[in-house]
Here is the input.
Amino acid sequence: MILKLIGLYKTEERAKEVLQEIVKKYSSYLELKGGPAVLQGQIDIQPNIFNIPKIYEMPGE
Here is the structure.
């Protein structure tokens, strides 16, 4: 396993706040569960997760 330092903060509390910000940011992207089409004659809606960014800029202090 390779570990990488992604951020360094003065207090553990600030580090936890930053982790919460990351969780909030990435959970804000829409997920489509899929299911049957509402109108007759349409195809069923497929599950989908929208393009989530691959880069997150760590906040400063």
User: Anything to note?
Assistant: The first strand starts at residue 31 and ends at 32. The helical segments are 12-27.
